[in-house]
Design a protein that fits this description.
Two copies of one chain form a homodimer. Chain A is of the alpha/beta class and 285 residues long. The first copy, chain A, has nine helices and twelve strands. The first copy, chain A, folds into two domains: 4-54, Spermidine synthase, tetramerisation domain (Spermidine Synthase, Chain: A, domain 2, Roll), CATH 2.30.140; 58-281, Rossmann fold. Chain A has helices at 58-73, 89-94, 110-119, 139-142, 170-179, 196-212, 248-253, 263-269, 274-281, and strands at residues 4-10, 13-27, 32-38, 42-47, 50-54, 79-84, 102-106, 132-135, 150-156, 180-189, 215-222, 230-237. In chain A, the strands form two sheets. Chain A has a seven-stranded mixed beta sheet with strand order 8-7-6-9-10-12-11, with helices on both faces. Chain A is globular, with a radius of gyration of 18 Å.
Chain lengths: 285, 285
């Protein structure tokens, strides 16, 4: 028997993964949730059939989402908002910083959290940290009433269709700006520049973010199980610069062990290929 | 009808590409050569079933193989040796430098060159440049009798099995060292760090190179159609440093238009993730 999970990365290109078994499946109020087990990547989570994370390479995504802003902002980060991210991966990395006092995790789908707690314990492992407050709400609505409150907002969303769609809009990014303190930073998962559909989504998100923030830069990582393996993240602020304001020595002095992130790679991640720069410049005016 | 080409990236993971048609197939004296046409990537070349290049993303690989060493060595590069690379992609990029006087392309398989001339004209387009000399020989044997002759050697090989196997050995790298002039640089395709088999090949190649060269650093690029999308290249020399000796202003003054490479990305490409550094450090003693 061969059981194959295929995620289409483009209309005619797919990554096919031979699966040992489907550990879980459910149609929640918001989306279809599946957990599979396979030889190459261990367990992996899909939402509406889209790859969210695998045990094998989730460290890349989560380390880049969290340590990049933390190495810039350092101890000024006390209160953090994570929108989406019900798997707990971003929370796990955030909990490694003792100076972070409060983490609000706003996840629309309670079932994602429950499923990850049960099936992905190495990812969801810090969701019970006393600093973590899980709010089962729509991030889009939650953020509307917040002002000047967070030092860091992380948008760990799904793709810009289905439940995650609103998290790529101008209204939403504008509200994130308002919810951040003056020195604050917004980090968001920003899709991929390569396949046409992803590149358009990336461009649209960038257009909406540069409309709201004084400074907005993209950074990249190699994530093998995401379409094209070339994934982008956004770093936006009122002026805090992701490379010029990097406090590499301070971060290195913390002794946080990472498998992907380091402070040299931090700088390199912001040096984008020309074709990606051009894609973004088109919407920057 | 659905015609699907699948390249296995690991024993249980494959990239599946829907193909419009197979344009060409041949069993040469050395390997099976195929050219396919598909919607997403245009035409693509496989050797023994392994993806060599696609029209859509070959610029990434070829720009990184050529412009990285050229931006370091500048006008001191007069004579270049390309081993493998019968598709002509590296030659195409090399020909953009007027100061390069002589390019030897040593390709074991005459049929690869002929097929690429016919089916991949945007890649093979500069093979008739008067500076290009094509030698249909085994690179492994060719290099043995060369001493102190080239300013730059580019190993544009297939994977380390089949006809390309010898191009990853200690003997071969030692002969490359001998064939280079004192200021010379060796650049090689260096496999991927992610999937087990590739990572082992990468480690083995690195062990063999550090045995021969005083300085050896790896750099990376996002190549969507290669396994994991995270591809490595080697930069080896007797002391010329790929980042400290980068002459960014000189390179930018040349006005060479690129779609992936730029001199900032050049630096960033050498900042590797921790897990890749550890993989390499294990064999550096």
């Amino acid at each position: 028997m061969q059981l194959t999970f295929t995620e289409m990365h483009a209309p005619t290109v797919g990554l096919a993964i031979q699966v040992d078994r489907q550990l879980y499946t459910e149609q929640s109020d918001f989306q279809r949730i599946d957990v599979f087990e396979c030889e190459e990547f261990g367990r992996f989570l899909t939402l509406d059939g889209y790859m969210m994370l695998t045990e094998r390479d989730e460290f890349i995504y989560h380390e880049m989402m969290v340590h990049v802003p933390l190495a810039v902002l350092g101890e000024t980060v006390r209160k953090v908002l994570v929108i989406g991210g019900g798997d707990g991966g971003c929370v796990r990395e955030l909990c490694r910083y003792p100076h972070i006092e409060h983490i609000d995790l706003v996840e629309i789908d309670e079932r994602v959290v429950a499923v990850c707690r049960e099936y992905l314990p190495t990812v969801a492992c810090n969701l019970d940290d006393p600093r973590v407050h899980i709010l089962y709400q729509d991030g889009l609505k939650y953020i509307r009433r917040i002002e000047d409150e967070y030092d860091l907002i992380i948008i760990d969303s799904t793709d810009p269709f289905g439940p995650g769609e609103g998290l790529f809009t101008m209204e939403f990014y504008g509200n994130c700006y308002k919810a951040l303190r003056a020195h604050g930073v917004l980090v968001n998962q920003h899709e991929s520049p390569f396949y046409k559909g992803d590149a358009l989504a990336c461009q649209r998100a960038h257009r909406n973010i540069v409309h709201s923030f004084e400074l907005s830069r993209l950074f990249q990582a190699h994530i093998p199980t995401y379409p094209s393996g070339h994934w982008l993240f956004g770093f936006s602020s009122r002026g805090v610069h992701p490379v010029r304001d990097l406090k590499a020595d301070d971060w290195n002095a913390r002794g946080i062990e990472t498998r992907y992130y380091n402070t040299n790679l931090h700088k390199g991640a912001f040096y984008l290929p020309n074709y990606v720069q051009r894609l973004l410049e088109k919407v920057e005016e």
